[in-house]
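Bug #77: duplicate submission created two jobs. Keeping one. Sequence:
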Amino acid sequence: MSTKSALGDLEIHRVIEEETPLFDPLEFFPTLTKETLEENRPWLEPAAIDPATGKLRLCIQSYLVRTPHHTILVDTCVGNHKQRPTRPFWHMKTADAWQRNLAATGVSVNDIDYVMCTHMHVDHVGWNTRLENGRWVPTFPKARYVFGEKEYAYWSAEHAKVPNPILEDSVLPIVATGQAEMVRTDAALNDHVRLIPTPGHTPDHYAVELGKGETIGVLTGDLIHSPLQARYPELSMRADSDQAQSAATRRRFLEHQCDTGRLVCTAHFPSPPPGM
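Kept job's structure:
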């Protein structure tokens, strides 16, 4: 399985944390019917649905993008030592797969110029920080961390109502060190990297367009989770903050990207990923 792709003057690496059966499809997609699931099971198994458990196989991964001028990490998975009791399979992880896979790219934590978090869910901000002497410190000491400004405002307001451990251990420590950049989600990071608003999964979710002069690749974040949603864009997953908006965003995105020849890098599709 290749985890690297050359894209013009860019280089993209997948940095996989885990790839396992995690969720019941009918619970993950509340509007999915048993009939539709069974109709599509033959092509979804064994890659996207595990035949033994019947659960969705999801890849939890980051994308490392090397441009001629910057080294960028998009999304940072679950991380270690994080209190996640509502997700037992991610609670207090001590695995080393993600660190090993990052090292295999030839890049160290000190080489990252930008960390881009498409949104602030548990499996996209975890390695933002690491535990050092009982304190959460930035994993990437020289990086600027790029967050959607409305995304941060939303979760900060929610955190004021009910404490959010994800914000506490994986976002606020970055803000405290002054490494956070709150940006509009229609902004350009540089000549090769642009944000595009893709709300619905969260209020200010963004995807990432790659390419100088023209878009030759897109990192989707969580606007789509499973190949099943490519066939049925109206299927929204249970954690989407606005399921109708999520479905509209997904359909618009797919209509815009299909037949363009662009490399579309999804956050959670099982291996092998399209185009890599």
